[in-house]
Amino acid sequence: MENELRDKELAARKLKGKIKEKEEEAFLVKEEFATLQEELESKNRKLRKLWTKYEASQAQMKDLQEEFQSEKDILLEEYTILSQQLKLRALIIDSFIPPEITGLIKSRAQWDDDSQQWFIPHLNLVGNAKRAQRPPTGITRFVHESASMYPGEPRYRSDNVVDLEADVDYPDKE
């Protein structure tokens, strides 16, 4: 259905182009004039038409050049940003990952055509994800009676010492 529409549009464009060419040919055909004044007026009309076509093509060319330049600037800016990000990532990798491990990761990485990204197979079986969680020992720490007076106070906790949501107001030291 869409292909038929495209074909019809293409055929219509070709026909319009052929009609335009025929009109231009008819326009440029030599005409016979009775007087020099008629010939002058005819040639002036032709000249005006050709001049407007020339100006339209010049304007179109200028618009295309401006569009090309803006696209070029956008691509250059994207290239600059991507190259900076790449350099930063390379610096981080070189600074914190030993070269042997980097080579090992590169050798195991595979390209996925569907997502257009590199991935490392079986990533869920390596590193900290592989290490099992320690079961709780069940041993509780001795809690002093003064700690039991402040049940929500983080400094008296024995379990889950790190609580990122705790709002603690520390007194100002003078």
Could you characterize what this model shows?
The chain has a domain at 54-95. A hairpin with a 4-residue loop joins strand 1 (110-112) and strand 2. It has a two-stranded antiparallel ribbon. The mean pLDDT is 80. Helices cover 61% and strands 3% of the residues. The protein is built from five helices and two strands, in the order H-H-H-E-E-H-H. The protein has helices at 2-28, 36-96, 99-108, 127-130, 145-148, and strands spanning 110-112, 117-119. The protein is mainly alpha-helical. This is Kinesin-like protein like protein. Residues 5-74 form a coiled coil. Keywords: Coiled coil.
Q: Tell how many strands the DSSP assignment holds.
A: 2
Low confidence ranges: none
What's the tally of helices? 5
Outline the biggest β-sheet: 2 strands, antiparallel
Query: What is the helix/strand order?
Result: HHHEEHH
Q: State the secondary-structure class.
A: mainly alpha
Share of helix, binned? 55-70%
Shape: elongated
Give the percentage of residues in beta strands.
under 5%
Mean pLDDT: 80
Radius of gyration: 39 Å
Strand order of the largest sheet: 1-2
Could you state the oligomeric state of the chains shown? single chain
Coiled coil: 5-74
Organism: Aduncisulcus paluster
Protein name: Kinesin-like protein like protein
Keywords: Coiled coil
